[in-house]
Design a protein that fits this description.
This protein is an alpha/beta fold and 480 residues long. Helices cover 37% and strands 10% of the residues. Bound molecules: pyridoxal-5'-phosphate (PLP). Residues 73-74, 133-135, 167, 169, 211, 215, 240, 242, 264, 279, 281 line the site of pyridoxal-5'-phosphate.
Length: 480
């Protein structure tokens, strides 16, 4: 194990060289209780040591630029470098959110056009680009649902329906807005159980949060009927856009009957995800809900773009300034580079890749809902379990083959789930390599299960106690 940067510290080896201060020193107006009374403990390292430290850390990380990243429900597609080029253009990178409108017309145009393209792709009428992630978009969308019912004087709708296959952020967002969460069962085909939905729909229900394709990668075939049940009961239909990559350019949530959607630009629209973020979760609505969208919205009049603050029904601001602008530029660049035809092709290729892998891996790995899927599918360890090998072991062993593991233990309705989403940016050859790795692990599980159960063997950090790592993380250097 190489030394930590603190352990490499050698007093006096700092190499920074700041120019003399050319502005008068100002008195510090921070209350004394917020000021530290000792110097911060920072390592003393030279420039080259600092560079080596960060480059070393980057080598330990794994990203889409390293290889296939099959993290189901996350759409870890390649982030085209042209996106980064566009976001770094000084005209975008160096502007300030408080600049006068007439000096940022280009930036406002990008935001306006991004909203317009998202509207076209999702079948909505108007978008806000403020939310900073999918979960933040959900929160915004559910606040809009509440504002809508309240505005109509319908205060009795205190519950939100969420399928048992949903991502945890759906019930969490509903709960934060004050709704009681009602879980709707899935049927034996992995789809929303219509009878259970009908049984729960009533005058106390604010709406239903749904993703389509769902978290099993399956298209909700009864979506029109689902929408009718919710609407006839006076509720609204919320679309969790995490799985938009499985339908974009082919069908639209707005045409299925959804009233509100969020879209994760960091998934479907190729901007960096996770630690590579920040993210962006724009929210789109049908025209009759547009008044409730966060304030301000970018608007256009006679070829001039401006911030529209005259929105009395708005739920207010959900983020400082106007969203993660750099992310929006990247997603805009992606949509423009692909065009309508390219967006459809990307979706079709994502679906083809997922089905190709599903067919190659099954029957070695059990696929509980083994039929045509959209952009992802869920397998399990059922066939490996008899050798004492858990899904977690398979995921850990994949790291020895140079892959980031798929999503595991989600969705919760599948025991020991292994959720695989290859995305459209993998070639047939790379999909074959990945399938071979998983088939090799299945053979190992049968013949030498301990190799799998004690993996990973080749990583810097071996198997960690994940509960302790999550509950009692050591986040800073505590000294010797
Ligand atoms: C189905 C689903 N919904 C919502 C989210 C939340 O999105 P975000 O991570 O951008 O907050 C995710 C994230 O993985 C997801 O998979």
């Amino acid at each position: 194990m190489s030394k930590l940067i603190f352990e490499k510290s050698a007093p006096g080896s700092n190499a920074f060289d700041l120019p003399p201060c050319d502005v008068p020193e100002q008195p510090i107006n921070i209350p004394a209780r917020f000021l530290r009374d000792t110097e911060p403990v920072l390592p003393d390292v030279s420039e080259v040591e600092a560079v080596r430290h960060f480059v070393g850390l980057s080598h330990r990380a794994y990203g889409v630029d390293d290889g296939l990243y099959p993290l189901g429900s996350c759409t870890m597609k390649y982030n085209p470098k042209i996106n980064e080029w566009a976001a770094r253009l000084p005209g975008f990178a160096c502007i300030h959110p408080y600049q006068p409108e007439e000096t940022v017309q280009g930036a406002l145009e990008i935001m306006y056009e991004t909203g317009r393209m998202l509207s076209e792709i999702t079948g909505m009428d108007q978008f806000t680009l403020q939310p900073a992630a999918g979960a933040h978009g959900e929160l915004t969308g559910v606040m809009i649902i509440k504002a809508y019912h309240n505005h109509r004087g319908d205060y009795n709708r205190t519950k939100m329906m969420v399928p048992d296959s949903a991502h945890g952020t759906n019930p969490a967002s509903s709960n934060v807005v004050g709704y009681e969460v009602i879980e709707i069962k899935s049927n034996s085909r992995g789809l929303v159980d219509l009878e259970d939905l009908k049984a729960h729909m009533g005058p106390d229900i604010a709406g239903l949060m749904l993703t389509n394709p769902n978290t099993l990668g399956l298209f909700e075939e009864d979506i029109k009927e689902i929408a009718a049940i919710v609407h006839e009961g006076g509720g609204l239909l919320y679309y969790d856009g995490a799985n938009l990559n499985g339908i974009m350019g082919v069908t639209r949530p707005g045409d299925m009957g959804f009233d509100i959607v969020h879209s994760n630009l960091h998934k479907t629209f190729s901007t960096p995800h996770g630690g590579g973020g920040p993210g962006s979760g724009p929210v789109g609505v049908k025209e009759y809900l547009a008044g409730y969208l966060p304030c301000p919205l970018v608007a256009k009049k006679d070829d001039r773009y401006y911030w529209d603050y005259d929105r009395p029904l708005s739920i207010g601001r959900v983020k400082a300034f106007n969203g993660n602008f750099g992310v929006i530029v990247k997603a805009y660049t992606y949509m423009k580079a692909l065009g309508g035809k390219g967006i459809k092709e990307a979706c079709e290729q994502a679906v083809l890749n997922a089905n190709y892998l599903r067919c190659r891996l099954q029957p070695t790995y059990e696929v509980p809902f083994n039929r045509i899927c959209k952009h992802e599918f869920v397998a399990t360890n059922k066939n490996q379990h008899q050798h004492g090998v858990a899904t977690l072991d398979i995921a850990k062993r994949l790291m020895d083959f140079g892959y980031h593991p798929p999503t595991v233990y989600f969705p919760l309705i599948v025991h020991e789930a292994l959720m695989i989403e290859p995305t459209e940016t993998e070639s047939r050859e790379r999909l074959d390599d990945f399938a071979e790795a998983l088939l090799t692990i299945a053979r190992e599980a049968e013949n030498e299960p301990d190799t799998v159960k004690t993996a990973p063997h080749t990583t810097v950090i071996k198997r960690v106690d994940e509960v302790t790592a999550a509950r009692k993380p050591v986040l800073k250097w505590e000294g010797q």
